[in-house]
Structures are given as C-alpha cells and as structure tokens.
C-alpha cells in the first residue's frame, strides 16, 4: 500500500480501514497466497521538510507486532509505503523486508524474479560498483531496486525500471527461464510515486489506485472517514481497502502510473532490451 496526500496518522492507514493491509496480511483476497506473515515494513516521510524517509521493519507478522501499533498512533505523514511479506525463498530476516531505501528513495515489490538463485550472480554483476556494496539483504526485490538505481532511477524512473526489467528478462531467458519477471513495483522520492504492473507472462498480480476523493464522497456521503481526506489524497493498493464500487480503478496490465499531488498519469510499460 502507498498513500500520498495531506499528513495523516499512520494508524488511520494501517489499521482502521476495513480491509487494511494488516488485515490483508492475514486474509488476502487477490494475492497468490492468503497469508503474508514473513515480516513487514513501513517507510514514511516527515511533514517538516525531511527528505530522507524513516523505515521500520520487523520479521514478526504485521498483525502481531505491538511496536507497530504503538508507533502508528504517533506517526503523521504525507507519504507512506507499507508492505507485508510472503517469502519467495529467501530468508526471513529484517534486511529482506520491504520497503528498501537508498537516500531519499523507497522501493517495494509484490511478486518475484523466477529462479532467482540461478540468475542472481549475473544480475548483481550488472549493479554499479558504487552501489553494489550497499545491497544489505538477499532478495530478488533489492537486487531489482539496485539495478534500477544503476540504470538511472533517480533521474528517470520509468526508463530505469524498463531497463532493469529488460535485463532480468534477457538474463532469465539465457538461463532457460520462460517467464523471468512477475510483479507490481512501487518507488518514490518523497514527492512523486511511480508504480509498475508487469509480468513476462502478462498475468500480473492486482494493483489499484483510488479515484478523486471528492467524487467518492458524492458516492458515499455516509462515510465520515472520507471527510478527513484532503483533495490530493491518493492510495495505491494491491487490494481495495474497502468494497466501494466506483472508488477504485485497476492499473492496467503492462502499465506505469505516475502519481503526484492528487494527479495521476498512466502510460504503457514495456521492458527495454539491453544494449
């Protein structure tokens, strides 16, 4: 889940929605697995001009971490990333929990790079020398993040991610992997959010964004919680936080969306073949 808008308590984002990401960690309706209990993480930006995000991660299941409940009542933020993890084979350890951070950037990913252990060396060799030493964990997601950073994420996120995904597909297929990439990815610099929905087999996990909050208020005037959300509010979620027809739009397969200050722009996403 990602939130962008007026500063809001993390508790209102993580615990209060009917089908919050904490509830989804126990009862995912649309994910490939029902339970996501192999750790969690949140990343957020301060509303006083802080450009480097804070990160809190744990290997505990999100629904059973009392420290998360404590800090969520005190964190007020205009931009938050939250992720619950189901390991695709790498160890359950804090350094493997999302979101990942580099400078002012955050990154998270639902999905996997197929047969990652077979292609890991070839992929990490392509990571820039000044970046390689900052890889802390052992996940495919973090490797993909550092590939995107190598290819210019901080200057042009769509092009950098297209090049990173293109490299993964090229390396995977050279190893005989038919569908090397599956996933939805999200990244932010604290001002804008970019999300990507793509898989090699063209059957990617779900991804939704919230529609204009003023239109949603007109549809559901009885929901007082909507009055607390400012006009720039946007949510990006793997699963809708509540069953409200008209409130959510699915990000199309093979797309990139750019969300900034209550606006969004969706473009086709296509991996770029390596030079």
UniProtKB/TrEMBL annotation:
PROSITE patterns linked to this entry: GATASE_TYPE_2
Entry keyword annotation includes Transferase: yes
Keywords of this entry: Glutamine amidotransferase, Transferase
Protein's UniProt keywords contain Heme: no
Gene3D superfamilies from the UniProt entry: Glutamine Phosphoribosylpyrophosphate, subunit 1, domain 1 (3.60.20.10)
Domain annotation Glutamine amidotransferase type-2: ranges: 1-275
Gene Ontology MF terms in the entry: transferase activity
Family matches, as CDD domains: YafJ
Domain of life: Bacteria
Pfam families listed in its UniProt record: GATase_4
PANTHER family the record matches: GLUTAMINE AMIDOTRANSFERASE DUG3-RELATED
Protein name: Class II glutamine amidotransferase
Natural source organism: Couchioplanes caeruleus subsp. caeruleus
């Amino acid at each position: 889940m990602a939130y962008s808008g007026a500063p809001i308590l993390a508790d209102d984002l993580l615990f209060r929605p009917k089908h919050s990401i904490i509830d989804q960690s126990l009862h995912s309706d649309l994910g490939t697995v029902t339970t996501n209990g192999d750790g969690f993480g949140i990343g957020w930006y301060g509303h006083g001009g802080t450009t480097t995000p804070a990160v809190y991660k744990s290997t505990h299941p999100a629904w059973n971490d009392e420290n998360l409940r404590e800090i969520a009542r005190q964190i007020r933020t205009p931009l938050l990333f939250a992720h619950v993890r189901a390991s695709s084979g790498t160890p359950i350890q804090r350094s493997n929990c999302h979101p990942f951070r580099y400078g002012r950037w955050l990154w998270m990913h639902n999905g996997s790079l197929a047969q990652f252990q077979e292609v890991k060396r070839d992929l990490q060799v392509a990571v820039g020398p000044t970046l390689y030493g900052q890889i802390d964990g052992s996940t495919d997601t973090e490797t993909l993040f550092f590939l995107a950073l190598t290819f210019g994420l901080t200057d042009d996120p769509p092009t950098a991610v297209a090049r990173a995904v293109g490299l993964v597909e090229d390396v995977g297929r050279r190893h005989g992997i038919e569908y090397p990439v599956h996933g939805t990815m999200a990244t932010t610099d604290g001002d804008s959010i970019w999300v990507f929905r793509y898989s090699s087999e063209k059957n990617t996990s779900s991804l939704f964004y919230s529609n204009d909050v003023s239109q949603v208020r007109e549809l559901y005037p009885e929901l007082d919680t909507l009055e607390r959300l400012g006009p720039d509010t946007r949510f990006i979620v793997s699963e809708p936080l509540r069953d409200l027809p008209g409130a959510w739009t699915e990000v199309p397969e093979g797309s990139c969306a750019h969300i900034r200050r209550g606006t969004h722009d969706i473009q086709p996403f296509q991996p770029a073949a390596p030079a």
